């Protein structure tokens, strides 16, 4: 139910490159979000990225796990038809769950990928 299946993820490098090149970016202190619209009939796919500037592998993995957990709990609030890439920035490694959740949901709202209530 809350798992991230292969159909819901960006898996190939060329898929990430397409989102970087053609997508629109939204930025805040902790996270960068790239959004590429697709057909509304297709499910939303997402990828998680952390660069080496964040720190060692332990810190990068923690940041990715944090972003995945926020997405996992809020994935049913997102509209269909988008390719998303979430990129963790260096201040994310100092953030707790609530701070990360606030930052990511703020970007989702700004990008208008959340469903209307």
UniProtKB/TrEMBL annotation:
GO terms for biological process: tRNA 5'-leader removal. Pfam families: Ribonuclease_P. GO terms for cellular component: ribonuclease P complex. It is an enzyme of class 3 (hydrolase). GO terms for molecular function: 3'-tRNA processing endoribonuclease activity; ribonuclease P activity; tRNA binding. It catalyses: Endonucleolytic cleavage of RNA, removing 5'-extranucleotides from tRNA precursor. Its EC number is 3.1.26.5. It comes from the Bacteria. Keywords: Endonuclease, Hydrolase, Nuclease, RNA-binding, tRNA processing. Belongs to the RnpA family. RNaseP catalyzes the removal of the 5'-leader sequence from pre-tRNA to produce the mature 5'-terminus. It can also cleave other RNA substrates such as 4.5S RNA. The protein component plays an auxiliary but essential role in vivo by binding to the 5'-leader sequence and broadening the substrate specificity of the ribozyme. HAMAP family: RNase_P. Consists of a catalytic RNA component (M1 or rnpB) and a protein subunit. This is Ribonuclease P protein component. The gene is rnpA.
